[in-house]
Amino acid sequence: MDAISSQTSGSERLANLRKAVRDFVEQEAIPREDPALAHDVVRLDAVVRELQQLARAAGIYAPHLPVALGGLGLSWSERCDILEEAGRSFLGGGALNCAPPDQPNMINLLEQGTPAQQAKYLMPLIRGETRSCFAMTEPAPGAGSDPRMLKTSAIRRDGKWILNGRKWFISGAVGADFAIVLARTDKGATMFLVDFDCPGYEVVRNIGSMDGYQIGGHGEITLNDVELDDGAVLGEVEHGFQYAQDRLEPARLSHCMRFIGRASRAMQLAQEYAASRESFGEKLSSLQQVQAMVVDSHIDLHASRLMTRECARKMDAGESVKHESAMTKIFVSEAVYRVADRAVQIMGALGISHDTPASMILSELRPFRIYDGATELHRATLARRIFQHGMRP
Fold first, then answer.
1. Which domain holds residue 374?
2. Radius of gyration over alpha carbons of the chain, in Å?
3. Three-state SS at 141
């Protein structure tokens, strides 16, 4: 595609790529949005696969992947712009194949997968031919915010691994071709690659939830004497908790980028409404309370972008972002929800209807304070680190 040719300078290429993604989202992704599609996992799958073909043809596919694997090879800093533009649509991340759980699963397969595992699982995932899920969360008393409570077990028997357990709220599970399953082994936890048709592996239901447009829904999975050989182990035995942590920081940051775009879209709709709607003889945009909500939202979005970009810069430099990514996730998850909430309030009855996407954006952003670790957990972890190391404010 000429607009994003590698012959242009880096900054010009990024600007052209951002415009190409914005045009794609406005012309292809947003027109395909439909409230009836939000919880229809079968139709959603079909729409996203169609959009992936269009995104590939447009030269905007897989911004997070190396060029050698068919991606755009963007740095984390460059992805801030691109994922925000993609995130303006509920379908944008999936269309560019940079949406969870496939995106972080690609990270695990790239970093821990053997050549055979990459050929079987990673490459079809990159091409958009398959889907995956990451099965860690369990019903009480199993693992939730505390992965150490992991109950799903993997034991050795006659040279095989035998998995037993129950997982739930597993994003992408419905229709996934394989799962990365975290299970407890002798001295910790291990990741396993489990095919959807493996005997004993069953997706028993799709759990209804307040968010929408989640590719593959949120499934409940049972594992009953699932038998695997050593070739199903992803990475090293007993390193599962570390691998799970390694995927969290990139996943949090990518969520921030996409959801900044979603909240920005909601506020743009609210501003347009306030500028045209008259009440009590004047435009809503002339009312100081409305003005304050708009300005506060711009402040929230600006601060969210700055925190996200700083975290991305450090990741590009190879620096640890354990502390910064937790702070960024807390702030952005709360800030984007505030923005969407104000947008709905400004738009009144229209805002809570499905005549605009604002209400769906609000519903989708609320769970972000739980995804990738609840904000309360992050605050507690940050506080311990601050006091243990005497960190200056």
1. 241-389
2. 21
3. coil
Joined together, the tokens standing for residue 275 give 């500028």
Half-sphere exposure of 263 (CA within 13 A, CB side): 30
pLDDT in tens, the chain (393 residues): 444 544 556 789 999 999 999 999 999 999 999 999 999 999 999 999 999 999 999 999 999 999 999 999 999 999 999 999 999 999 999 999 999 999 999 999 999 999 999 999 999 999 999 999 999 999 999 998 888 899 999 999 999 999 999 999 999 999 999 999 999 999 999 999 999 999 999 999 999 999 999 999 999 999 999 999 999 999 999 999 999 988 989 999 999 999 999 999 999 999 999 999 998 899 999 999 999 999 999 999 999 999 999 999 999 999 999 999 999 999 999 999 999 999 999 999 999 999 999 999 999 999 999 988 899 999 999 999 999 999 999
Q: Against a cut of 0.85, is the pTM above it?
A: yes
3-class SS at 219?
strand
Residues 246 and 380 grouped into a single domain: yes
CATH number, domain at 46?
Answer: 1.10.540.10
> Quick one: 384 and 255 in the same domain?
yes
Domain boundary among the residues 182, 203, 234 is at 234
Domain count within the chain = 3
| Distance from C-alpha of 217 to C-alpha of 169, rounded to nearest angstrom | 8
Q: Is residue 168 part of a domain?
A: yes
Give residue 33's region: left, alpha or beta (phi > 0; psi -120 to 50): beta
